[in-house]
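Consider the tokenized backbone below.
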């Protein structure tokens, strides 16, 4: 009961949208932790692109974070190397993102590619090696057709796999996949505004 009163008090004391500075004060976390949580999408925010005061965070998202931090503390813990400067935060997709939203983003992103792509083009699109693409095909994750000692892949099938839960939650993500996640978050903000 005391926790609910605390959250109600926070909602009364602060406006509906707050800055990063208010976030770290409300949550009793460091500035670095606040930046990590915002940059990785663990706490949803809107970035204005300014050099200072560029984050706008909704209080309901902060309350959600505070509630879930108590239940799942490991989820919100900073990775090793964060405080000695060797860790670079990597963006994460919010859990609310749907496969159809990702497919729309990838269709726009890859519109310059033909409707049927080679394994080399699929490698460029995903940032994964050609051998990795072939493994996906042989495992039945991506539909493809054999052609002269290689495979051709319908672009829509590759995009469908890239939007799937399996692809999003790969342990070893490529640099290109992280760039695509950051690009999707920016694309999503642009669509909402």
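A designed sequence for it:
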């Amino acid at each position: 009961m005391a926790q609910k009163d605390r959250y109600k008090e926070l909602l009364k004391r602060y406006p509906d949208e707050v800055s990063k500075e208010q976030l770290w004060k409300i949550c009793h976390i460091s500035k670095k932790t606040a930046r990590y949580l915002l940059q990785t999408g663990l706490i949803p925010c809107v970035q204005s692109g300014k050099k200072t005061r560029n984050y706008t965070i909704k209080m309901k998202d902060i309350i959600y974070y505070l509630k879930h931090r108590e239940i799942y503390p490991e989820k919100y813990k900073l990775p090793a190397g964060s405080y000695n400067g060797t860790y670079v935060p990597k963006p994460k997709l919010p859990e609310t993102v749907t496969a159809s939203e990702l497919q729309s983003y990838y269709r726009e992103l890859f519109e310059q590619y033909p409707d049927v792509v080679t394994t080399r083009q699929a490698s460029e699109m995903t940032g994964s090696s050609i051998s990795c693409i072939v493994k996906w095909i042989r495992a039945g994750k991506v539909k493809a057709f054999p052609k002269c000692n290689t495979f051709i892949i319908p672009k829509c099938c590759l995009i469908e796999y890239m939007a799937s839960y399996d692809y999003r939650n790969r342990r070893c993500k490529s640099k290109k996949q992280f760039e695509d996640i950051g690009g999707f978050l920016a694309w999503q903000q642009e669509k909402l505004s």
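Residues 99-192 form a domain with the Multidrug-efflux Transporter Regulator; Chain: A; Domain 2 fold (CATH 1.10.1660).
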